[in-house]
């Protein structure tokens, strides 16, 4: 009998996690709560339980004999879902509430890094508008303004001039655009360099890094337009040398895992380090307490070992094995609803997307209309991923598919991976 695993979440990230679990061989059944109807095209079960309904999730696990849960998104982690599972005698892969603060509070993460000499941008934290504005005017631009708490990846403004930074502070303190997330703000020095994402499986004291990837946060080609949750990604990132990745593992990931354990908030789950390769070496932009989205959709397809077996080993206190395909490039592009991220226009019809065995479609913001057709129901709609020998090959392949689709009501970037070809 194989394992039964519950994945919690509803996006393309959770689709990729569930698909990777299915591929491994040790899992008999994967259900995603709440999931989305696009996942069902892969034979993945879904159950209409909200990720915020901890009691119903616990009942579902117990009533249906599930072995463990994988918590995908940040909100249930920060809300203590893993703690509630543990209290009910259930296993879940993800950090508890105390450890999830590394994402839930920018200030917590910054103080941790400061205490342990982990390289990151210089910063200051404010809980009122006037001193924050005074700091910005004194410091000048470029400068980075971050809402302290969770803002769905949209609470960060990279301000190239002082006016933009002040407007971002007004947004947070006067308009309360991010609600409680903006009760505090972190203002950081701007760092110059290419960004990359380094995710690791962590068991509290040890960690197993994954191949690095690069996300594209801006909505439009050439890194123009507003920040989004991510418009596409690729892995590996050839312009980031292995020596920089090795340095990041030793100066950032290792001391962070150790610091969390030493301070009584050990981290188990996926630690996401959003990094930048500066002239002074890699530095931390942010930590997340879970898989990145869309990076997961290009990293997990490279996994050649059994994902569920590796996570089960961690949950059972054993040593996991994770192996990766290092020979091929994976690259993927988000199709987003018109108006994303600010004024999303829902309802676009989802075309049938032809893919080969080296490609996959991961669904995010989709629902079914009364005729049973898939339609866009959110900002990011789906993610088309492919693998190929080179970045150029992968770009050509994925865009040959997307450019031929009827994409009325949706848009996408045409240059995912472009920084690798410069």
UniProtKB/TrEMBL annotation:
The family database entries (HAMAP family) matched by this protein are listed as: GARS (MF_00138)
Record field: catalytic activity: 5-phospho-beta-D-ribosylamine + glycine + ATP = N(1)-(5-phospho-beta-D-ribosyl)glycinamide + ADP + phosphate + H(+)
EC assignment: 6.3.4.13
Can you tell me which residues the record assigns to a coiled coil?
A: none
Q: Which family does the entry's similarity section mention?
A: Belongs to the GARS family.
Organism of this sequence: Bifidobacterium parmae
Gene name per UniProt: purD
Cofactor(s) named in the record: Mg(2+); Mn(2+)
Pathway as given in its UniProt record: Purine metabolism; IMP biosynthesis via de novo pathway; N(1)-(5-phospho-D-ribosyl)glycinamide from 5-phospho-alpha-D-ribose 1-diphosphate: step 2/2
Q: What is one process in the GO biological process aspect for this record? A: 'de novo' IMP biosynthetic process
Record keywords:
ATP-binding, Ligase, Manganese, Metal-binding, Nucleotide-binding, Purine biosynthesis
- Top-level taxon in the UniProt lineage: Bacteria
> Does ATP-binding appear among the keywords?
yes
Q: Which InterPro entries match?
A: ATP-grasp (IPR011761), ATP_grasp_subdomain_1 (IPR013815), PreATP-grasp_dom_sf (IPR016185), PRibGlycinamid_synth_ATP-grasp (IPR020561), PRibGlycinamide_synth (IPR000115), PRibGlycinamide_synth_C-dom (IPR020560), PRibGlycinamide_synth_C_sf (IPR037123), PRibGlycinamide_synth_CS (IPR020559)
GO-annotated molecular function:
ATP binding; metal ion binding; phosphoribosylamine-glycine ligase activity
The molecule here is called Phosphoribosylamine--glycine ligase
Where does the ATP-grasp domain lie?
110-316
């Amino acid at each position: 009998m194989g394992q039964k695993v519950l994945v919690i979440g509803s996006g393309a990230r959770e689709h990729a996690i569930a698909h990777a679990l299915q591929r491994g061989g040790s899992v008999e059944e994967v259900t995603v709560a709440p999931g989305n109807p696009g996942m069902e095209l892969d034979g993945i079960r879904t159950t209409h339980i909200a990720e915020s309904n901890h009691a119903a999730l616990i009942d579902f696990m117990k009533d249906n004999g599930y072995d463990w849960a994988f918590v995908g998104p940040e909100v249930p982690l920060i809300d203590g879902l893993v703690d509630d599972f543990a209290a009910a005698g259930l296993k879940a892969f993800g950090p508890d509430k105390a450890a999830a603060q590394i994402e839930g509070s920018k200030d917590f993460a910054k103080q941790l890094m400061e205490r342990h000499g982990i390289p990151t941008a210089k910063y200051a934290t404010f809980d009122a508008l006037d001193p924050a504005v005074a700091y910005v005017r004194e410091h000048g631009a470029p400068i980075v303004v971050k809402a302290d708490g969770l803002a769905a990846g949209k609470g960060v403004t990279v301000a190239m001039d002082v006016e933009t930074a002040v407007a971002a502070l007004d947004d947070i303190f006067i308009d309360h655009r991010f609600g409680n997330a903006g009760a505090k703000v972190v203002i950081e020095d701007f760092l110059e360099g290419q960004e990359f994402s380094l995710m690791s499986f962590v068991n509290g004291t040890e960690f197993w890094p994954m191949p690095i990837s690069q996300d594209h946060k801006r909505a439009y080609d050439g890194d123009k337009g507003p920040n989004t949750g991510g418009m596409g990604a690729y892995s590996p990132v050839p312009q980031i040398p292995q020596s920089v990745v090795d340095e990041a593992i030793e100066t950032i990931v290792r001391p962070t895992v150790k610091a969390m354990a030493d301070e009584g908030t050990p981290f188990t789950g996926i630690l996401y380090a959003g990094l930048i390769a500066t002239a002074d070496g890699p530095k931390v932009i942010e930590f997340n307490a879970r898989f990145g989205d869309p990076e997961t959709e290009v990293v997990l397809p490279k996994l050649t070992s059994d994902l569920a077996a590796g996570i089960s080993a961690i949950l059972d206190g054993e040593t996991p094995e994770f192996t990766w395909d290092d020979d091929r490039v994976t690259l993927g592009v988000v199709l987003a609803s018109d108006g994303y991220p600010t004024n999303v226009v829902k309802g676009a019809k989802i075309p049938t997307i032809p893919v080969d065995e080296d490609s996959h479609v991961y669904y995010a913001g989709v629902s079914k209309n009364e005729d049973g057709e898939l339609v866009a129901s959110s900002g990011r709609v789906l993610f088309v991923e492919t693998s190929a020998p080179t970045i150029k090959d992968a770009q050509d392949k994925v865009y040959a598919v997307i450019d031929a689709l009827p994409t009325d009501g949706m848009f996408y970037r045409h240059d995912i991976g472009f920084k690798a070809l410069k």
